[in-house]
Amino acid sequence: MSDLICIGAIAGSFGVNGEVRLKSFCSEPTDIGTYGPLSTEDGSRSFQITLTRPVAGGLGARIEGVKTKEQADALRGTSLYVPRDRLPSLPDDEFYHADLIGLSAFDTGGELIGKVTAIYNHGAGDIVEISPNRHKSALLLPFTTAIVPNVDLTAGRIVVNLPDVSDE
User: Fold this and answer.
1) 130 neighbors 160 (Cβ within 8 angstroms)
2) What is the pLDDT of residue 2?
3) Cβ proximity of 8 and 26 under 8 Å
4) Which CATH number fits domain 4-86: 3.30.1370.10, 3.40.50.150, 3.40.140.10, 2.40.30.60?
5) Is pTM beyond 0.85 here?
6) What 3-state DSSP class applies to 24?
7) Beta-carbon contacts of residue 150 (< 8 Å; ≥ 6 apart)
8) What is the DSSP letter of 96?
9) DSSP 8-state secondary structure symbol assigned to residue 85
């Protein structure tokens, strides 16, 4: 498990006075403003963020020290991280995406399928991507309790109930 969790990204400038558009990865988007200074993944830069308003595609924000549109544009694409210990504890049936990536995936019979390589959410629920051992293409499966009935972070594994895809 990583000590840093990506909770958002700077999507570009908003207006001409140095305001930025933030894309929040928090379940409640405005929570991104409550975690204190955010940093780049390598820790080389830190950002004190003040949310200003909702904007199309995200949240408007001021970043301390950013005064011009050009400075804001230069930050486009910057991912924003927070130390794990600043995030709230989750209930037993919820997980941070970063904790799932890299887990071994086993079928319900105990056979190794592959590794979790990504988690996606395009609005209709989480999708788990598994890079399989015996197939060339990745498996994309809904991250539901019917398909993934067991997640064991301590053991570093998930159990996957593979759907029947036989051609009849």
Assistant:
1) yes
2) 60
3) yes
4) 2.40.30.60
5) no
6) strand
7) 158, 159
8) -
9) G
